[in-house]
Request: fold
Amino acid sequence: MSDKRTIDVAATPMLDRAKEIGFLTTFDRAKAQEPRCTFGNTGICCRICLQGPCRILPKKPGGNKGICGAMDYTIVARNIVRYIAGGSAAHSDHGRHIAETVLHVAEGKLKDYQITDAVKLIAVAKKIGVETEGRDVLAVAKDVATAALDEFGRVNEDEITWLTANSNESTLDVLRKTNIMPSGINLSLAQLLHQTHAGNDADPVNIIFGGLKAALCDYDGMALATDLSDILFGTGVPVVTEANLGAIKADKVNIALHGHNPLLSQMVVKAAKEMQGEAKTAGAAGINLVGICCTGNEVLTREGVAIATNFATQELAILTGAMDAMVVDVQCIMPSLRSLAECYHTKIITTMPIMKIPGSYHLAFDEHRALDSAKEIIRLAIDAYKVRDTEKVCIPDVRNTVVAGFTLESLLNIFKKINADAPIRVLTDAIEAGEIKGVALFAGCNNLKGTHDENHFTIATELAKNDVFIVATGCAAQAFGKEGLLNGDGVQKYAGEGLKKFIARLNAAAGLTAELPLIFHMGSCVDNSRAQDLANMMAKEMGLDNRDVPYVASAPEAMSEKAVAIGSWNVALGNPVHVGVVAPTVGSTLVNDVVTKVAEDVFGGFFFWETDPVKAATRLVDILEERNWKNAMRK
Ligand code: CUV
Reply:
């Protein structure tokens, strides 16, 4: 753990290798961007009209405002909520794609997909008010998919469905009173872009509220994406696999599944099972699939596919020299992959109409012939394998056992074995008894403003030591997998006495072949909806408003616009949110105070920025203790 670039011991030798071959990785490029422009860094650079960029120069007469007269607070607020619009668009468009597929399955138009989890379908239908009694599964599926698609184009005053169906009444009250309850996803996102157009809204608080409305659409898009993906591909159950670059196998055809959308990656998993023989004919020991980013998390949760690595180290998978193909769909895919692939035999295969990289291989994914598309991809990988240069192969011998697949359903199934009537009581009893302090959700990406994976590791192990029950999604969860925190050894090494006892009790009841992990991997970024369901359930069981539940969220290495959206809806739904990089809100004291202080009075949730992982962990524990203390006082 001595390398300042990363704490990932598999990444270090690969970064050295990059240096040897003269390839500049994202780590080098991050360094090359220093020093950053202070205006951009603090959010006071306005680029939303062609007279700009305008920078706020507080001491210069005339320079303390933009050319139009926009104050620092207007500029900062506009900039930050435009991130939310981008993030929310990405997540919800992913959800729409899944919903459309479910609709086409229900209409009998797709042969390669089917309704895999009918139990979940019925549960979701009941939740959103779709009639199920005596109805055919496909008819129910059609109504559920239609309800999901209706979320996008609605332009009336009706409230958005998934958010209202999932949230507790007292939370909904707050959203209604503050006027941020969305109706349609497209409407809220378009309105937010309109609201923040040049010469429009100058009121920072009003802009932030518009941003929160869009963030709630992000939640909605995520929640329906999770539900419909489970319906289509099954709801994950505990799986055992491994994580880190050592999951790439020298003797096999290696294919990385990278991006976010499970529609294609699930098909590749299916096709790979059928095509092991073809790989063997080509001289390989078989086909080995590994995941990167959230597509990886999707197929890990449902199929037990190993984790290769997370966002910041995606290039390093190619540097092993043994990656035959990297199939990418949407989001978080570095354009640099292709130039690096040129130094090797690796095929970068883009598959979606909105995500192409000049010079890479594009195979337009078609749901109507999904399995065939997947087979074509595997054949491309097998062909690449045949010309792999074994001299260049160098796979770090680093891998850790991963026990994952903890969708809320699979977590509750374990709790049920201890308390069949009220499973969630198992968790809330342990909190009320003081055995554990509460729940922390770890979400989000990598951000090379700090040391790769260090914030994830340090904050999580500190919280574990302090008896906090931890769930995780996204690249945070992948960091934990690589660092050995998603297995039973992690419990022995890092859990405090209370958490150890709690997990031991779960282990005794679960009756799984593998020990339960220190941190429970809930899935991809869109599966942050599962974590929110958990928080909502805790609130209900404890008789509390969400704002009082001992539940916190942390994005130790937030990077993407999506992370800003996720953090923002967490705040609106009552959760304290730590972010491990300083947000570009600090250029306006007013805006920064609104999101870090005033938000708590209004929503119960608030942001705090803390780059020091130990300090961040201390603050998170303090927040949980304070909530517990207040709850005890109220009794
Ligand atoms: Ni959606 S958004 S870097 S893959 S978590 Fe990973 Fe997760 Fe952030 Fe992207």
Summary: Residues 260, 293-294, 311, 332, 444-445, 474-475, 524-525, 559-560, 562-563 surround Fe(4)-Ni(1)-S(4) cluster, oxidized (CB under 6 Å).
